[in-house]
Design a protein that fits this description.
Length: 255
């Protein structure tokens, strides 16, 4: 009998160690991404000079085609995990994978989105700030097609600045602009998934959990990296609900 709680304790310790290891991997990835961006800045300018051929050769942009542009996402589970179900929440940009580990006897929920190159990531950061300011000036009202307006503004800015970007990169960045400016940021995929009934967040640097209709409670791969990112998300979410958060009123009912 005494062996049972010991086994449980060991399993909990192993699980905690695994979570800590994953957090370290995320931090390492961030550091590598930052360094890669710095290198990209040295080797290649974001905005090309006016003498060069500008954005996509100034050709008319066609709709995304998997045959022409290739798949937007790639995913293969870590060793020991297998895919038991997969489905799109925003085809062809965002897909959900339910994975399972026999040893752990655990299911997990994985959101897979397009991966931006260091150059595309840096470009996205600059374009995001410009477009956010443009949209704030427009003061969009209910009933307008926000996606069409955002896409038009995005394309116009790329052309005006003669940005060096291929069509595949164009669509990847457009996806993240839709997600972060019109959607719910990192939680957009979760909000669009009709199989989810609840989303819970216990703080930054901790994975979010969801309640899935078929698999009940699942740990996700969605993490808010720091306190500022989480605070910013909460404030933006409250604003979307027409609510106001402040030090005097730190809690809000947005149901």
């Amino acid at each position: 009998m005494p062996k049972i709680p010991i086994a449980i304790t060991k399993k909990e310790k192993e699980k905690a160690a695994e979570e800590e290891k994953e957090t370290e991997k995320l931090e390492q990835y961030e550091r590598e991404a930052i360094e890669a961006i710095k290198e990209a800045k040295k080797e290649r300018k974001i905005f090309k000079t006016k003498k060069e051929v500008g954005f996509l050769g100034r050709e008319k942009i066609k709709e995304y085609s998997a045959e022409k542009h290739g798949p937007m996402i790639e995913f293969s589970p870590q060793q020991g995990w297998k895919i038991v179900e997969e489905y799109w929440v925003n085809e062809p940009y965002c897909k959900v994978f339910i994975i399972y580990n026999d040893e752990e006897q655990e299911y997990r929920y994985v959101v897979v989105e397009p991966k931006l190159s260091p150059y595309e990531l840096e470009l996205y950061g600059q374009i995001f700030l410009i477009i956010r300011e443009e949209l704030e000036k427009l003061e969009l009202t209910d009933g307008v097609d926000r996606e069409t307006i955002l896409k038009d503004v995005y394309t116009r800015i790329l052309r005006e600045l003669n940005v060096d970007l291929d069509e595949r990169g164009y669509f990847k960045i457009l996806y993240y602009l839709f997600r972060d400016l019109l959607g719910y940021g990192k939680l957009t995929a979760l909000m669009k998934d009709r199989m989810l009934e609840d989303i819970s967040c216990n703080g930054y640097r901790k994975p979010l959990y969801v309640f899935h209709r078929s698999y009940t409670n699942l740990r996700t791969n969605i993490v808010f990296e720091d306190e500022d990112e989480l605070d910013s998300f909460v404030i933006n979410l409250a604003q979307k609900c027409g609510k106001h958060l402040s030090i005097a009123e730190p809690m809000v009912d947005a149901t």
